[in-house]
Amino acid sequence: YSGGQCTDLTASLMYALWDKNGSHPTMTNGNGDSVAKNWASSFGGNTNAKPSSGAVFSQTASSAGNSAGHTGLVSHVFENGDILVIKQNYSSLSGEDGGFGQYTWSYRYVPTSQYSSGWTFYDLSQAGYSIVSTASSLD
User: Fold this and answer.
1) Could you tell me the strand order of the sheet in which 106-110 lies?
2) Mean pLDDT, residues 105-117
């Protein structure tokens, strides 16, 4: 990984956000379209169509509009089901391919209608992990 791809950000955030008995998860396999499935395969549990805060997401290549798909993390799920995601290297907003360089990211508000097809989610709580105690959110 180069530090400028969507998979880089996902691996870094999942490591920093989740904890199980003092251990942080690592998984760096796959293109964006297979990341959620690879996390589920490595740690246990299943992907699903329901987002939750802290979950990794994958988009199919067709829903992302490219050949490798896309991945990132769900930052927030709104009462109406819409989500806020954090991602890198998508649609010329951040990352290497957009010319922004390494270690840049952006947020995206995603209405339910836009993730209802072609998106999968995986939440590490299925494998006994918890969000680290130092994480906080703004309400």
Assistant:
1) 106-110, 83-87, 70-77, 56-59, 119-122
2) 90
